[in-house]
Amino acid sequence: MGKNDKIVYILGAGCSSGQQPDGPGFPLARDFASALEAFSKEQLVSDNCQKLRTLVTETVDLLRREKVQTLDALAARLGSESQGSQSYSLTQTQKQMLRRQVGNARIATAALFMYLEKNAKQVGLPRYDYFLTELFGNSTDWAKASRNSNANILTFNYDRLFEMAFIDRFKCDTGLHPLYGKSLLNSGLDYVQGNSFDVSPDQFAFLKLHGSVGVRAREEGDHNPQIYTYYDGLPGDEQTLIDDERFFAYSQNVNPYEHDPEPLIVFPHEKPFVTAGTKTLLSFRSYIPNVWAEAKRLISEATEIWAIGYSFAPMDRADVLDLFRSTTKCKKLIVQNTPGTAEMICARLQKKWFEPENIVLSVEPYPHPF
Q1: Confidence of residue 84 (pLDDT cuts 50, 70, 90)
Q2: By the 8 A CB rule, do 6 and 303 touch?
Q3: In which region does residue 3 sit, left (phi positive, over 0), alpha (psi from -120 to 50) or beta (all else)?
Q4: Cα(215)–Cα(287) distance, rounded to whole angstroms?
Q5: What pLDDT sits at residue 251?
Q6: How far apart are CA 213 and CA 69, in angstroms?
Q7: What is the pTM of this model?
Q8: Average pLDDT score over residue span 173-178
Q9: Which residues does 365 contact at the CB level (< 8 Å), separation at least 6?
Q10: How far apart are CA 243 and CA 51, in angstroms?
Q11: Is 37 left (phi over 0), alpha (psi -120 to 50) or beta?
C-alpha cells in the first residue's frame, strides 16, 4: 500500500472467543452462560465473593429463562422492557428491577472477563502477537512503531486481550504514560475526571466502541456534575482481586454520588439512550458519543477496512451503517472470518445492509480464522 493509505481494522468477539490451541480463550456465544456458571461455582467460593456470586448466578438464570446466549442480547431485552414504548405499563419498581438486572449484567461481564484475562496472561496470546506483527512489523520500540503505522483499530470487544499483548510486546511504562492515553494506545480513556475525551488525530488509535472491562465511572456533584473514572489495574494483573469489595464497597452509602462506580460497559442497545443523555446512563455520557464520532472520522479517512472476527450482529446494524456512511476514500471492506462464515457475512452485508442504504462499498471475504 502507498504511504498515504490508511487501514482501519474492526475487531469482534471472534478475535478473543473460542479455544485457542495454546490455552483457553473467551467463550463463544453458545457457551457464555456455562462459562459464567463455572466461574461462579469454581472461583466465587470464598466469603468475600458471595454478593458477586449471587449476582452472577441470577444473571445466568436470566440468560436461560430469556433463552438468549449473550449478555448483550439479555441486556437488550431487559433494556427494551424498561425503556421501550411499552414501558408505561410497568410500575416504577419493575423498571428499577430491570435496570438493576442490566447493571448486574455489566458487573458479571467485568468480573468474568477480568478473571479470564488472568488465565490468558499465563498461557500467552500468540494470535494477538501475530496481529501486532502484521500492524507494526517486528519492532518493539513503540515510539518508532506508532510513527510508522498507517493503521487504526476499532473494537467492539469489552475484553483487554489486545492491550495485554501490546504491553507484552512493547514493554511500555504504563506508570509514566497511561495505557489509554495519547502516548500509548490513544484511546481517549486517560482522563480521571471531567468530560474530556482527548485523542491525537495523527497517530495510531485503538478505540473501544462499547467501553472496556477494567474501567469504571461515576458521576459526582449536584450542579455541573463531573465524571470520575476508576481503573482496576492493568489487564491480567494477578494482584487485582475480583471480589465483593471491588464492586460493592460503597453499596450502603445513602448519597447516590458515593455509590460504587459502574463498569464502563455500554451494551449495544444502550448507545442511543447514552447519546441522548438519558439520566440513568450519565456515567457514560462523556465517552460514548465522542468515541463514536472519532470512529466515524477514522472510517472517513480509511482507504481499506478489515472486519476481523466480527459477525455484524443485527443489534449493531444502525450504528455500523452510520459508520460506513462516512466512507469517502474506501471502496472495499474485507471480512476475515472462518471459512463459510466469511462468505455468508459478505452476502448478508451487501444485499441486506449496504444496497438498501445505497452504500457503495464492495465486500470481499477472507476465509481464514484470526
Answers
A1: low
A2: yes
A3: alpha
A4: 12
A5: 77
A6: 20
A7: 0.89
A8: 85
A9: 334, 335, 337, 342, 343, 345, 346
A10: 8
A11: alpha
